[in-house]
Amino acid sequence: MTCCGLLTAKKEPVPLKSVEVELQVRDHVATVVSTLNYENKEDKPLEAVFVFPLPGDAAVCHFSATIGQTQIVAEVKEKQQAREEYDDALSSGQQAFLLEESDQSPDIFSLSVGSLPPGESASIRLEYVTELAVQADDGLRFCLPAVLNPRYQPQGSEGASVQVTSVPASLVPYSLSFSARVSSPRPVSKVESNCSLDPLQYLNTEQTQATVKLAAGHKFDRDVEVLIYYKDAHQPTAVVEAGQASAKPGSLMGDPIVMLSLYPEFPQDVMSSLASCGEFVFLLDRSGSMDDHMNNSKRDQTRIGSARDTLLLLLKSLPMGCYFNIYSFGSGYEHIFPKSVEYSQTTMEEALKTVERMGADLGGTEILKPLQHIYSQPCIPNQPRQVFVFTDGEVWNTKEIISLVKKNSGSHRCFSFGIGEGASSALINGLAKEGGGHAQFITGADRMQPKVMQMLRFALQPAVVDISVTWDLPKGVSVTVLSPPITALFQGQRSLVYAQLSGQVGASSEAAEGCVTVKYSLAGHPSQNQLHFSLTPAQDTGLTVHRLAARTLIRSLDMEERESRGEQDGGMKKKVVELSVQSGVSSAFTAFIAVNKGDGEAIQGPLVRRNCIHFSHSFINKFTLQHVLNSCTKLHSNPLLQVVSLQKASGCWELDPALAAALGKTSEEVENTKPASVNQEVWATILALIWLHGFKMDAQEEWELLAMKAASWLRAQNAPCVTECVEAGNALLGCNVQKDALGL
Fold it and tell me: How far apart are CA 104 and CA 428, in angstroms?
């Protein structure tokens, strides 16, 4: 176990002085340039090891160091060879730098700065490209992690973990500056952040280019999250990027690459009919870190508390006739039922009683075994399996977990939620990507409930099957698709496809066009979407699209290598190394190595090692503690949750004192205003719906599905005098909600 922290055991400061980050966003992808400035204040030569998180799908594509007037640009080499060159350089007194990806998780990198002379400064420039994830509200999310949470490692597993001891954010001894430049074919409507930003500056009258900066005085005490919003966000786009002039024609880097951003639009009549079947399996993290507060403030709800409230909404919103189960995990795992059960009033009540007692008290974060158990259960005929995973993402065996999900991707969809600062983007995005679902991150002041209910809507959408992508290109131009086949499509969800264009692309006329057609079947209806695009390469994209395409191909080959381990002769690993070296993009099997072979004398003196982590909160081995909830606040202190908790599985409410109190009325007021010809359940259900529409429209995403279930129940009753009930309910509650708005 390597002990890392921002201060050494002797309380000596880390030699990192400042971090500068420049973000360049083009449409849906970003190039990030980070400059790390070091200074050795020791009286001896220094080796610093800097461990830091990057987005899980990032492709590191440049690494260089400047010492004094000398700049050294790193090369990509096979990982073991790079390590040996680094060690050789240090033993001969030369300066050297090594950047490598963790074997276990692609969102952790370590940077070794070797033999920095006493009093010397070094500036390290790191560049990576990444896709920006689309959020439920169509915002594109960029996150600069300030936190590398301790990664829980199961006992007896291979690989060295990192034991983290940290310092409070107020003592972080380095500063951060951050600026972003955004450009898109569509106007930029707004840019938001969880941190203070200077006002957005537009660079042209069309508002398709803009810049924004982090306000002065930012303390690196949280992730820097930036959300970018475009007008007409759902328009499909294509970007063609010219090949590298110095690369061989026909190679990945030498040919043009096209990046397609597809947004399928499904027929409205099909989308309005949400599925009334399915097997819903909820998998909840109950490790000790789930007892942390959502926004690092003790005034806020804990992560586990928010998860309990979310499960209440989920359980109330499930359709009658479906099946469900709830698993929770820590060092071990538990499930409420031995196998998934049919959803009814009895099974719902039993599940809710268990959920109310759930605390962050199961120790570590071992997610692999419960997933294995879920996949070992036979699927229920005509009940498509949907798995919802809630975790703060503090695991070490990320790649193993994602491989398991991919192996079982034919039998389920996986929706994943990263809770709190520092949730592993590699884990959360990987679960959803390989499981054909969708990922969401819940940080800062975000409420978990609306994001989760959006995902339940996705899960209730009819499954899209028989997906195919066909290309129509001018004569002499051929295409090689580099992305894995599309396995899942959701209304309003983006799919990115990378493809290599070979042949006479440059010889085509300037007006030459390509066309791509996505065909699929939805609820038995064959459908298709088409996108026509120009083959003329875009200007000023550099090699961003090529590098992301290389990263996509590297990840696919890496996954194949892991799945077929022991069955191959290392040919897949060799392909990954070749592609990584050719494209200059990092992989699990390569590393960036830079050695200063200048004419100066060897650096004299014993080498001092300093370990540091790009990290800010005080997470001192929380994963080894058994957390017990210190206080049990009443679960339903929120008025909305009070009303929701009283709904029956069928969708109706009963007329009782608890409902009257939740609506702010006495039992007598509620009973005396009931129209005589209407039964109590119909009256209670109409009152609850009027209250939701009249007072809780700001949280409509949270209760919309359970309200649809209630309206469906009411329509099935063929109750008389519904109009009279709505009028009486409005008068009682002081609302003005129309009958149509209630779905009646």
Answer: 15
| Domain-wise residue ranges, the chain | 7-233+584-595, 237-269+466-563, 274-460, 639-742
Paired sense of beta strands 323-329 and 279-285, if any: parallel
CB-CB contact of 38 with 18 (8 Å):
no
* CA-based end-to-end distance of the chain: 63
7-233+584-595 under CATH 3.40.50.300, yes or no: no
Q: What is the three-class DSSP state of 32?
A: strand
Indicate whether this model's pTM tops 0.90: no
Gyration radius of the chain's alpha carbons:
28
Contacts of 122 by beta carbon, 8 Å cutoff, 6+ apart: 37, 38, 39, 65, 66, 67, 95, 113, 116
* Structure tokens belonging to residue 367: 């997610």
Per the CB < 8 A criterion, the answer to whether 147 and 194 are in contact is no
The domain 237-269+466-563 is placed in CATH, from the list 2.60.40, 2.115.10, 3.40.50, 1.20.1550, at 2.60.40
What is the helix, strand, coil percentage profile of the chain, to 5? 25, 30, 40
| Unique residue bearing structure tokens 């939701």 | 692
Which residues are CB-neighbours of 642 under 8 A, at least 6 positions away? 636, 662
pLDDT in tens, 95-114: 788 888 777 667 677 777 76
- Which range of 40-44, 47-51, 297-301, 702-706 scores highest in mean pLDDT? It is 702-706
Token pair belonging to 283: 């998998």
List, for residues 231-257, the tens digit of each pLDDT value.
877 778 888 898 888 888 889 999 999
Taking CA 403 as the corner, what is the angle to CA 399 and CA 408, rounded to the nearest 5 degrees?
A: 155
237-269+466-563 matches 274-460 in fold: no
CATH code, residues 274-460: 3.40.50.410
User: Phi and psi of 49, rounded to 5°?
Assistant: -115, 115
How far apart CA 415 and CA 429 sit, in angstroms, is 9
Q: Where would I find the beta strands (DSSP E) of 102-187?
A: 108-116, 121-131, 133-134, 140-144, 162-164, 175-183
| Separation between Cα atoms, residue 565 and residue 576, nearest integer Å | 14
